[in-house]
Amino acid sequence: MAQFGFENDIHSILKLDMPITNAPMARWQRKASSSTTSASAALSPGKSANVSLSSSKTPNKTPGKNLKCTPSKVGGDRFIPIRNSKQMDVASFLLTKENEPMDTNNPAGASENQKAWSVTLNGYNIEEAKILHLGGKPLNAPEGYQNNLKVLYSQVTTPASTKKTRYISSIPDRILDAPELRNDFYLNLLDWSSQNILAVALHNSVYLWNATHGDITLLMKMERDEDYISSVSWTKDGNYLAIGTSDCNVQLWDVENQKRLRSMAGHTARVGSLSWNAHVLSSGSRSGHIHHHDVRVADHHIFTLTGHSQEVCGLKWSPDGRYLASGGNDNMVYVWPSVQDGNSTDGQAVRCWSEHQGAVKALAWCPWQPNILASGGGTSDRHIRIWNVNSGACISSLDTQSQISSLVFAPNYKELVSAHGYAHNNVVIWKYPSLSKVAELSGHEDRVLNLALSPDSSCVATVAGDETVRLWKSFELDPVKKKAKERMAKSTSSVIHQSIR
User: Fold this and answer.
1) From CA 216, how far away is CA 198, in angstroms rounded?
2) Where is the composition biased (Low complexity) (predicted)?
3) Is the pTM for the entire model greater than 0.85?
């Protein structure tokens, strides 16, 4: 009997047309059940419907994580295939914040929350990366800030750190040979004319080098070999050249026609320094005397200044023609009044300074501040001193640790250039008025004797005891500034054209 009962059980299990009571709910039944539930929920939004689903249905939450449900308005929303939980949370937060009153007591907290959300979602604060801002002042891109958006408008100018920096070459633009150049600290053997011609004195000859075309001309040569040229100086218009000699004379040459116009005597020793003020030529001698010559008249000598006890090796008229500065081997600096109508005001110096401890050959007037004078001392002093002629005060002083042989102001960048002998034999560019070092120009193998600035103030020429002339293009303007300066420049003519004889 037990055998028949077992066979009946096997048949009942294998019979397929009977309903299965313990199996999971069929797929079509689940779909029908879920659609019925959705329909009833849509028709009765205020009532809750309890639908029991099978335990095999995919859960709507990740087990073990407490995640918020997708926020939705009452009545449902459209079907979105892929949902980002973070984006939906942000959207829900912003929607709820729209209907809440603004917290006026803590605006900083709201701003910080908004910044945090923006950084989390976008990787940057979107308020700082706006291209167009309609409210308030336009946004400024902070210095050093970078992002993937291009700044189309900025309220302020470009930061200084992004401006083009000026390049100063440490190598001269050109080197010229200067054979037989006298290596004498007290002489002034170089000058650059307004017509871009460089005059260089080599022993007893004067050579002219045209910086525009590169032509070299021998202007003059002294008759006796034992004589030599001790100073040269161009007129303002660049047509005439004054030449001081060791035989106590001052010669005046017409450069265009290569003709000597006159030779003016009067000194009792070599003439080591020259300076022009319109038609008046001032010459300084080893005797310590300074003569004023009116080159328009036959009786050229009009006045003598006596103050220095030793050789006058530095002589410079101020740009406005009011003062004549002189420096000597007696370590003194004098400032003399101008000559008017052939007469000087009693021949007394306006200023007299004795602070230098060495010979004062280097003198330079500031082109943009006519009352400022710079002076440099020799080996025993080595100081650059800046003077205010009106007050007589020494504005600043700097120890250069080297003999100073020449000074010149470079107006393009408002700088001061100094030439040095022992022990550095170099050229230094200083920022004015701070006197902070901008650059050093090295290359000369012996002491630098003189400096000369080009007509456009972009280049400085140096002559040294190594018998070379070097040109340094250290002050070139950018093209925009250069064109603006050329438009503002006015053509000038000198009265010396009219009646020189």
Assistant:
1) 9
2) 32-42
3) no
176-340+348-496 placed in CATH 2.130.10.10:
yes
| Residues near 271 by beta carbon (within 8 Å), at least 6 away in sequence | 230, 231, 244, 245, 248, 249, 250, 283, 284, 285
* Total count of residues recorded for the chain: 501
Mean pLDDT of 171-175: 93
Domain residue ranges of the chain, discontinuous segments joined by +: 176-340+348-496
Judge whether 199 and 206 are in contact, CB under 8 Å: yes
Residue 150 confidence (pLDDT): 56
Region 260-267: mean pLDDT is 94
Gap between the Cα atoms of 125 and 114, Å rounded: 9
pLDDT over 80 (residue 427): yes
- Cα–Cα nearest to 180, from 248, 112, 228, 236: 228
Residues 200, 436: Cα–Cα separation, whole Å: 31
Beta bridge partners of 436: 431
pLDDT for residue 302 is more than 80: yes
- For range 215-239, the mean pLDDT: 95
Q: Can you point out the beta strands (E) in 295-338?
A: 301-306, 312-317, 323-328, 333-337
User: 78-82, 261-265, 461-465: which range is least confident on average?
Assistant: 78-82
Looking at this protein, which amino acid is placed at residue 280? V
What distances in angstroms separate CA 449 from CA 78, 307, 413, 468, one per listed residue? 91, 25, 24, 11
Residue found by looking up tokens 């189309």 in the block = 152
Closest by Cα among 482, 384, 468 to 432:
384
* pLDDT tens for each residue of 347-386: 789 999 999 999 999 999 999 999 999 999 999 999 999 9
Tell me how far apart the alpha carbons of residues 105 and 107 are, in angstroms, rounded to a whole number: 6
Closest residue by Cα to residue 338 from 280, 296, 298: 280
337: which strand partners?
323
d(CA 265, CA 498) in angstroms, rounded, equals: 23
Residue 493: what pLDDT?
Answer: 43
Q: What's the CA angle centered on 230, arms 292 and 301, to 5 degrees? A: 15
**What whole-number distance in Å separates Cα of residue 37 and Cα of residue 52?**
10
Q: Which two tokens stand for residue 493?
A: 């003519």
The per-residue pLDDT for 339 is: 78
Long-range contacts of 389-392 (CB under 8 A, 24+ apart): 389/318, 389/323, 389/335, 389/350, 389/351, 392/351, 392/353
DSSP state of 218: E
Q: Name the 3-class secondary structure at 70.
A: coil
Beta carbons within 10 angstroms of residue 451's beta carbon: 22
Q: Which residues does 446 contact at the CB level (< 8 Å), separation at least 6?
A: 183, 425, 464, 465, 466
The pLDDT score that the predictor gives to residue 43 is 43
pLDDT digits (tens, 9 = 90+) for 395-404: 999 999 999 9
